[in-house]
Design goal:
eleven-stranded mixed sheet, about 1000 residues
């Protein structure tokens, strides 16, 4: 054959190959397009970078698509049953149902992202917020954070992030940007985006619509700021490595593409089954390596019975290693979801018919699949609902390939056992899988696409995992859509028992979030409630908060004495000198080892001081106010029956002395028109309650022989006798001053402790119980007055924050007057930035303060914003506490929980009404020694002087390291070891018996630290 005949055929073949190359692989260009319009091939550097091009506090761009996102607030589920968790399980499905109605086929992504334990930011923030912190306060929180991290006491926290695609970038890069673009591209090797502000505004409006839909669906959300997006991306890329603290690199302005490498600079060689990620340590400049692998859900049951124990999301959060979950998908409208389901059903039925025609045995699995497909289509016919085409990915990290393999196997077994689901690790696709885990579009390449791992599912599958539950409790900042944050994370109280999440608490953070001022610490003696109260008292006072502690025992004073005077408190003469008020003065044998701490401490012991130092007429701001408190005090002292019989005589006597005082003041001001209030106080002596009662006694002496009616003489005789006995009572004498001297004052120190050791028990209706309640009323009123009179103000931080601690608060709340007083201060405290801490063994009266507070109910507020419930001994006591925890009094599981708590453990109800079991951490041996009240162990704990510098304080160790050793195995201490002696255990450090004479055996298996 002539070869020339083959030339036309060869030409056609060449043309065909060229056309295929142009069409499929985009090689070359069209002849009819100008060269400048032909799409240039992206440089290699551009193809290898992550395609994040723009990011602000509302939206970000992944490649050519625009996304928005927000955090879904989690709910603490430790003490919630499966039935009670059903609304929580429906939270995400309801959100997606609402979004499916408002938007057409939106792309979404739900992420569960661990937050590595990092308290560095908290230390800086809480130090900055402190009103006037001491150097030791900054050291306290810094060392607490260091201890929590270095000893592995804190577990990873998890954020739930919802992302949705809201737009698409156009092809134009904006007019007038060519010169800048050329320079940037040449310098960085990557492109940059210059976006029209009007286009960005449209995306922001769309993002606001998504945010509003979420709020309308009943989901509590927080906006995702740009720094949050950077943290999420880094968490996905950096694995187990700590995230760099260089927020300034991305906080200057919205990034362009060439700036994003500042936020996520990494290298990740793609091995067969893992990624080996290398990042540079900013401090040392050395490479750090982590190993990542991503698992894909390949087999999933069509129907999963919802149960708390089977919720794989909450199980993942409790693993000792973190897992990143990315559940992305496409929301399908009901008609499309039904069409997909119908198509699947038809295919399955065709397969079954083919097998039947071939006389093949039809597999039972195929029959089940056909039945489920029929059920889905039938349900859609009766009530159409949207669905999703979704993809579930889980990313693990580890410091070594061997550990990574162990974690992978454990995760696969977990899903197989819990859900009968299969998660596998695809090989040679790890880099593409990582793209799909990151926030944004994910893998879009035509080669290596992982679409086979996408499944058609109902939206309720998102709820089965319980992604939005956790065991987090305590403070948190609430950020509004305007970016303004309310609240912050206060002192580190301890950690949750379930998950070991850090627990932060500050009464003033709750107040900043528009909540009430009250805090309740409740529990039986010896459970640890006083330990928590004293820790808060010590830390807050060191932070600059003006703290007043009213203590019917001596626990608070004992702590302050030890921290100021060290081992001198063991001297037999120490407390005698303390009662005389000469500690630290010249000539006193007891001098402080920490002078600065003692200068900021005031300890008042009215029962052992001079008579009348709590006389209301002398301690109140005005005589008129003092009269009101004096009459209320007498009513409590005498009881209703006696008071009703003699009140007329007493009221008349008070009117006489107040009117006489007012007359003398008016005369002085007439003679001295320029006189100040202090001048009046010095010139005109105040009346006293002693002299007021003396008027009643004198009146009886006058009329008893003057021919007055027997009835009146009898009543007056009774009044005089009762008041005489009252003035001679060894306890009530503190309320009746013979001389018009100045009562107990306050100089505005950091710590004021009013101790009432030796006061009778305020239970029952006996005269001693009445007097005890009256004295507690006076002391409480004095404490509130001390706080109300502050005039200290910082130009930046505002009025000085204050706190009042009332121990044995049930004694105050057991009377109507006490409840009214506490309720009033709880409501007024927020306005004055005063936190009120009520410490009690019985919660019944405190619960009634809230339940009977009509004003609080009408305003929709809760004046007791936080509750710490420690161990209870009886069902009745626990049932009384349950209303404070927002639980029914017959909640049997919660009653058993309160009775089974160990020493130092409590159930905390935070300002968001979340409940979780908390392990209170004392952190330092010196603090544990300061609060030690067990008489058998106090000498062991307080034998060594505490260093004035917290940097020398020793970290508390676990009991196993203490038992049987001569010293206290603690780190970071400059103080000498304690001499050998009996074992030192934890329960004694939690002893709350104080001066009640009770003690319990110390168990050797309990630690000094929780």
């Amino acid at each position: 054959m002539n070869p020339l005949y083959l030339l036309p055929l060869l030409a056609l073949v060449v043309i065909g190959i060229g056309a295929v190359l142009i069409f499929v692989f985009n090689v070359g260009g069209s002849d009819d397009k100008p060269a400048k319009q032909q799409k240039a091939r992206e440089p290699r550097t551009e193809r290898e970078r992550l395609p994040y091009r723009y990011g602000d506090d509302v939206i970000f761009c992944w490649g050519r698509s625009v996304w928005t996102g927000f955090f879904v607030t989690t709910t603490t589920d430790e003490h919630i049953t499966t039935d009670e968790l059903v609304p929580e399980a429906l939270k995400l499905p309801n959100l997606l149902h609402q979004i499916a109605r408002e938007f057409h086929r939106p792309q979404f992504q739900v992420m569960l992202v661990p937050r590595h334990p990092d308290l560095t930011g908290w230390v800086a923030d809480v130090s900055e917020r402190a009103w006037h912190p001491t150097d030791n306060y900054v050291k306290l929180i810094d060392r607490e954070a260091e201890r929590a991290l270095t000893q592995g006491r804190i577990g990873a926290q998890y954020d739930v992030l919802f992302l949705m695609r809201v737009g698409q970038l156009g092809d134009s890069r904006g007019p007038g940007s060519a010169a800048v673009t050329a320079i940037a591209d040449q310098a960085t090797g990557v492109h940059d985006e210059y976006l029209d502000p009007a286009v960005v505004a449209e995306w922001h409006e769309r993002a606001d619509e998504v945010y509003a839909v979420a709020v309308d669906s009943g989901v509590e959300v927080q906006p995702m700021l740009r720094r949050d997006l950077v943290r999420v991306i880094r968490t996905c890329l950096f694995g187990h490595l700590p995230l760099p603290d260089d927020g300034t690199a991305v906080d200057r302005r919205p990034w362009g593409a060439h700036e994003f490498e500042l936020a996520a600079d990494f290298r990740a060689p793609n091995h067969k089954s893992r990624l080996e990620v290398s990042v540079i340590d900013d401090d040392t400049g050395e490479d750090q390596t982590t190993y990542l692998t991503t698992l894909v859900a390949t087999s999933w049951p069509d129907a999963i019975r919802f149960a708390k124990t089977r919720a794989w999301g909450r199980i993942l959060k409790r693993l000792e290693f973190p897992v990143v979950v990315s559940w992305r998908g496409l929301l399908l409208p009901p008609e499309e979801f039904r069409g997909r389901g119908k198509k699947i059903r038809d295919n399955l039925e065709d397969e079954a018919r083919d097998m039947d025609r071939a006389s093949a045995r039809i597999d039972s699995l195929l029959v089940d699949q056909v039945e489920r497909a029929n059920t889905l289509v039938d349900e859609q016919d009766s009530k159409p609902f949207p669905g999703m085409e979704s993809q579930l990915l889980l990313t693990l990290s580890a410091p070594t390939p061997e550990e990574l393999e162990n974690r992978r196997k454990r995760l696969e077994r977990l899903f197989a056992k819990t859900l009968d689901a299969t998660v596998l690790r695809p090989k040679r696709l790890q880099y593409r899988l990582l793209y799909n885990v990151l926030p944004g579009d994910g893998d879009k390449s035509p080669i290596g696409r992982i679409a086979p791992f996408r499944r058609l599912q109902e939206l309720d599958q998102l709820g089965v995992a319980l992604l939005t539950t956790a065991t987090q409790v305590g403070d948190r900042a609430v950020v509004g859509r305007d970016g303004i944050a309310k609240g912050w994370q206060g002192m580190l109280v301890g950690r949750t028992r379930d998950g070991h999440y850090p627990v932060h608490y500050s009464a003033h953070s709750a107040i900043a979030r528009e909540n009430g001022a009250g805090v309740v610490v409740v529990g039986a003696s010896g459970g640890g409630k006083t330990t928590l109260a004293l820790k808060v008292f010590h830390y807050e006072s060191e932070a600059g908060v003006r703290c007043v502690f009213i203590d019917p025992k001596i626990d608070a004073a004992r702590m302050a004495y030890y921290l100021a005077f060290g081992s001198q408190v063991l001297d037999a003469e120490f407390m005698r000198h303390a009662a005389e008020g000469c500690l630290g003065e010249g000539g006193c044998p007891f001098q402080p080892v920490n002078p600065s701490y003692w200068r900021d401490t005031e300890i008042i012991d009215p029962l052992r001081g001079r008579a009348g130092n709590l006389d209301p007429l002398l301690t109140s701001a005005t005589v008129t106010e003092g009269r009101m408190h004096a009459q209320a005090m007498l009513e409590i002292f005498l009881g209703d029956q006696a008071w009703n019989r003699i009140s007329g005589y007493v009221v008349e006597a008070f009117s006489h002395v107040v009117n006489e005082y007012d007359r003398q003041v008016a005369a002085f001001r007439t003679a001295h028109p320029d006189a100040t209030r202090d001048d009046v106080e010095r010139a005109v002596a105040r009346p006293t309650t002693w002299h007021t009662l003396q008027l009643v006694v004198d009146e009886f002496e006058r009329v008893k022989g003057a021919g007055v009616a027997d009835t009146e003489v009898r009543d007056l005789r009774f009044a005089a006798a009762v008041l005489e006995d009252l003035r001679k009572n060894p306890y009530a004498r503190v309320a009746f001053a013979r001389e018009a001297t100045v009562g107990v004052g306050d100089s505005g120190k950091r710590r004021t402790i009013i101790t009432l050791r030796g006061l009778p028990r305020a239970h029952g209706t006996s005269s001693s119980a009445n007097i005890a309640r009256g004295i507690i009323y006076l002391v409480t009123r004095l404490g509130f007055q001390m706080l109300e009179e502050t005039t200290e103000r910082d130009p930046v931080k505002g009025w000085r924050p204050q706190m009042l601690f009332v121990d044995e608060a049930y004694s105050v709340a057991s009377t109507g007057e006490g409840r009214d007083l506490i309720s009033f201060v709880l409501k007024q405290g927020r306005a004055f930035n005063i936190g009120v801490v009520l410490i009690t063994q019985q919660a019944g009266d405190l619960a009634r303060i809230e339940s009977e507070d009509v004003d609080a109910k009408a305003a929709g507020t809760n004046q007791i914003h936080t509750v710490f419930a420690f161990r209870h001994h009886s069902d009745a006591d626990a049932a009384q506490t349950l209303p404070l925890l927002n639980r029914a009094t017959n909640d049997r599981p919660m009653i058993e929980t309160l009775k089974s708590l160990r020493d130092g453990e409590c159930v905390m109800r935070d300002v968001d009404s979340e409940l979780a079991s908390v392990e209170v951490d004392r952190a330092f041996f010196e603090f544990a020694a300061a609060i030690q009240s067990n008489p058998h162990l106090e000498s062991r704990f307080k034998a060594v002087d505490p260093s004035p510098d917290v940097d020398d304080w020793r970290v508390v160790e676990e009991a196993a390291q203490l038992i049987g050793v001569g010293g206290l195995g603690a780190a970071g201490g400059g103080a000498p070891p304690v001499a050998a002696g009996p074992d030192i255990d934890g329960p004694a450090a939690y002893d709350d018996n104080g001066g009640d004479g009770e003690s319990r055996p110390v168990r050797a298996d309990e630690g000094i630290s929780v």
